Amino acid sequence: MERDYIALNEGEPIAAAELPDEVVRAGLTQAYLDSVGHLDVTIPRSSDMLEADRIEISWVPVVAQFSRQNWAPVASKTVSQNEATGKDKPVVQIPSSVIQQLAQGKIGIYFRYIDRTGNLGQFSEVVHLLFDLRPAPENLLGPLVYLAEHDNLIDRADAQLGVAVVILGYDNFQTDDQIEVIWEGISVAPVPFYAFPMYIPINWDTLSKKGPATDREVDVSYNVLRSGSSKSSPILPLKVDFTVAGPEPDPANPGPINDKLPVIAVKSRENPLVDNVLGEGDKGQPARAQLPNNPFNSGDILRLYWGDLRPHVVEKIIGAEGPGDIITFDIPWEFIEAGGYNEYLPVYYSTWNEVNEQESGRISVDVRILDIQGLPDVTFPDRFVPAPPNPPTPIPLINCSSRPWDGIRVNIPFDKKAMAVDDEVVIEWQAYSDTNGTILIDETYFEFLRFKLSADHEASGIAFLVPYQDRVEPIVTRGSAQFSYTLYKPSGQSGKHSTRVMISRVIGTTLCSADSRDKCDMLPTASENDAENGNI
To answer: 3-state DSSP: the chain helix, strand, coil percent, rounded to 5?
Structure first.
């Protein structure tokens, strides 16, 4: 008897097994097994296959290391005479009942021939399949795009905010699912499932791939990917509109700034002329801003923005202007005031086509001509106070009981919002011979020397004494005065605040003065009516 020592398939490597097309495409699922009942594995013929040769199949998870030592066949088949002599490839059928017990995941299927004398053939090449018996995703809810809910439109402003597709949910989700959004036929990189709702961002490259400056209709959907299979959601139809008025922007981003727009300049009335600086000559008047040329079409809408004011302060529709014409905006003074003091006020304009707005580059405008607002009222510590329960007079009153011959004390509160150490202050005083402040006493006007605010002022306020002689005494009987202070910031901005004070030197039938101080010490308590009538 001769023993067969010849290696199977003449010692040559053997190709991988073949699987049904549906399994290759979508993986091996419970639905497939329920429909077919088994898995057919088609085996390439060996060059020397004989009747009674045996074929063994091994089922190996890809995460495991395959070797001859751990070969564990899950199915086998003995070659029949017809298979040995025919031309068809043998098929090994693995029943569903066996498959249900096998490891799931990504599987490598190997086979080898064993001849009837026990000689072992080489291991075949591997064929992979994805095996998952979990219930398939069902009842996929359609995707949502929240930024398009109110108008069914995605525009440039939406793209700047960040567009996201929202996945609300589906049945039979698994933690290893992946969600693949399809935007306008473009596959977005799959995102691992984490929780519902899922928010999947859509970048500008995807949004603009089929046109960065056009309008069109798009379809949005998503696929649930699991173990090689894919389940598609309903389609959400949307519109996108990325058109603009004026030069088309850089297609690499949605804006809002378009560097192709000419930069605006704010013109000053000062001499010499300096762009983007408003000086004293511009105070109280509209500012004029200009574009050096006109790259726009008739009907295009331009909007000018001044500082943080919203919405825009000026809107202009291009009409008969030609390509080389200067475009001019007039900014009303009320908006300049509302924009406030700013050494670097941002100013720009935009184009608007009723859908999208694109913006020019910013310029900085020096707006120092606005007065400081909200400076605090001064106080007069020695003002007359009527006897309770009468309230203080509406306008501060200095009378003989205030001892004006010692000077009129004034206190300017240090307002930390408006004032700072090293700011400078100028104080002015003007007296009037009437209580309405209309008849000047010229010789009483005085402007006191400018001084710097110090840390002591910050802590205690700004105390000042108006001299009596020459400044108060010329008010012969009853009159008034205006106390003013002007605050100067190192930047050049200033603000002025004035307070009116009533002054009465009447004491009985005479006038109080330094010589009558004894009488003033003995003055009776005045009534509110006396104060209002100026009888004190």
So the answer is: 15, 35, 50
Q: Binning pLDDT at 50, 70 and 90, where does residue 514 land?
A: confident
Closest CA to 108 of 26, 174, 19: 19
- The answer to whether the CB of 118 falls within 8 A of the CB of 5 is no
Check residue 204 and give left, alpha or beta (phi > 0: left; psi -120 to 50: alpha).
Answer: alpha
Are the C-beta atoms of residues 349 and 305 closer than 8 Å to each other?
yes
Residues paired with 131 in a beta bridge:
28, 105
In angstroms, the CA 308 to CA 440 distance is: 43
Domain ranges of the chain: 10-132, 146-241, 265-367, 397-533
CB atoms within 10 A of CB 386: 19
CATH class of 397-533: mainly beta
The reply to whether 397-533 shares the fold of 146-241 is yes
**Percent residues over pLDDT 90 in the chain:** 78
What would the 3-class secondary structure string for 496-529 be? Answer: EEEEEEEEECEECCEECCHHHHHHHHCCCCCCHH
- Answer yes or no: are the C-beta atoms of 10 and 123 closer than 8 Å: no
Instruction: Convert 178-199 into a string of H (helix), E (strand) and C (coil).
Output: EEEEEECCEECCCEECCCCCEE
Architecture in CATH of 265-367: Sandwich (2.60)
Instruction: Say whether the peptide bond before residue 192 is cis (omega within 30 degrees of 0).
Output: no
Average pLDDT, the chain: 91
What is the Cα–Cα distance from 54 to 8, expressed in whole angstroms? 11
Q: What is the mean pLDDT of residues 223-233?
A: 91
Q: Does pLDDT of 518 surpass 60?
A: no
The number of beta carbons lying within 10 Å of the beta carbon of residue 430 is 19
Q: Which residues pair with 77 in a beta bridge?
A: 55
User: What is the predicted pLDDT for the residue at 209?
Assistant: 97
CA nearest 367: which of 459, 259, 439, 287? 287
Architecture label for domain 10-132: Sandwich (2.60)
287: enclosing H helix or E strand: strand 287-291
Question: Whole-structure pTM over 0.85, yes or no?
Answer: no
CA 29 – CA 18 distance, rounded (Å): 17
> Is 310 buried (19+), middle (13-18) or exposed (0-12) by CB count in 10 A?
exposed
Q: Is the pLDDT of residue 330 over 50?
A: yes
Q: What is the CATH number of domain 146-241?
A: 2.60.40
- DSSP class of residue 185 equals T
353 φ/ψ sector (left φ>0, alpha ψ -120 to 50, else beta): alpha
223 vs 232: CA distance, rounded Å: 4
The pLDDT of 369-396, averaged and rounded, is 92
How does pLDDT run across 146-203, given as a tens digit for each residue? Answer: 999 999 999 999 999 999 999 999 999 999 999 999 999 999 999 999 999 999 999 9
